[in-house]
Design a protein that fits this description.
276 residues, alpha/beta, Rossmann fold, six-stranded parallel β-sheet, 11 helices, 6 strands, elongated
């Protein structure tokens, strides 16, 4: 290796502050600030101290209205997660919402049909719904046949769901939270033909226009990740979401400050630090 390139390689591999690999110090500090913010917010929430409230999410408030409408009409509620995967954050975010919907259905004595294209999700959903009925004091009302594994083939699953929507004619359809793909618009159209009030939510940017256009209420992007905190008010979840929000504010501020420094100053110490 030429002498100049050798010196450059040694400089790049030199540890920052004697601890961090070059390029990792700024990321470590950012993660540390994030962890501190989340810890502080969780601690305040557990202690009953005031923290920033999660903003009103009309789509989640509409779930109770949708279940109530189904109860009045004597028709079921249909819940689908699209094509979920246990490793997808959207799927994990959907579990608390499913439990909330199931508990409402148990309290209102309304039938809940959950269609699933994945055997792992099927087992999890069945236990979530069973537990929700137990917490509502109506374990005998839980019908495991209404948690339905259809198939893991995308459009075969779509065909199965369409047959259920046509036969059962649910008065409410909850599409939350995905991920959703080409089946999203098909489900929404079929729900509209069945006369269902529809609440949808996803972080799949390609499907968001269909949710906004076709559903009565839509949760957009990261609103689905705040759903469990909004519904449960549980201190750990709420504190985590609020801590994440404050960290986002810091990121935005750092971007603005860094942009101004890069525009008007000869050197940018913020950029230098974050890449050190």
């Amino acid at each position: 290796m030429p002498f100049g390139l050798s010196l450059l390689a040694q400089e790049e591999s030199k540890a920052v502050w004697g601890i961090f690999t070059a390029g990792q110090a700024g990321a470590f500090v950012a993660v540390a600030i994030f962890a501190i913010l989340v810890y502080v917010m969780i601690t305040r929430a557990r202690a009953g101290q005031s923290i920033r409230e999660i903003h009103k999410i009309p789509g989640l408030d509409a779930i109770s209205e949708a279940v109530g409408r189904a109860t009045e009409m004597g028709r079921p509620v249909h819940y689908t997660m699209g094509l979920p995967s246990i490793t997808d954050p959207q799927t994990i975010a959907a579990f608390p919402v499913l439990g909330y919907v199931a508990k409402l259905c148990a309290q209102y004595e309304t039938r809940l049909i959950n269609t699933v294209p994945d055997v792992v999700i099927y087992a999890i959903n069945e236990e979530i719904i069973r537990q929700a009925y137990l917490e509502a004091g109506r374990p005998d009302a839980f019908n495991p046949d209404d948690v339905r594994f259809i198939t893991d083939w995308q459009f075969a699953y779509v065909a199965g769901v369409l047959e259920i929507l046509a036969a059962e004619k649910p008065a409410a359809q909850i599409l939350f939270a995905g991920p959703f793909y080409a089946e999203a618009m098909i489900f929404i159209e079929a729900g509209a033909l069945a006369g269902a009030i529809q609440v949808g939510g996803t972080a799949s940017t390609a499907q968001l226009p269909f949710f906004v256009a076709g559903c009565d209420y839509a949760l957009i992007g990261e609103e689905i990740y705040a759903a469990s905190a909004y519904l449960s008010k549980e201190p750990i979840i709420t504190g985590t979401v609020v801590g994440e929000d404050y960290f986002k504010f810091l990121i935005f501020a750092a971007i603005i400050v860094g942009t101004l420094i890069a525009t008007f100053a000869t050197s940018n110490p913020l950029a230098t630090f974050m890449t050190s």
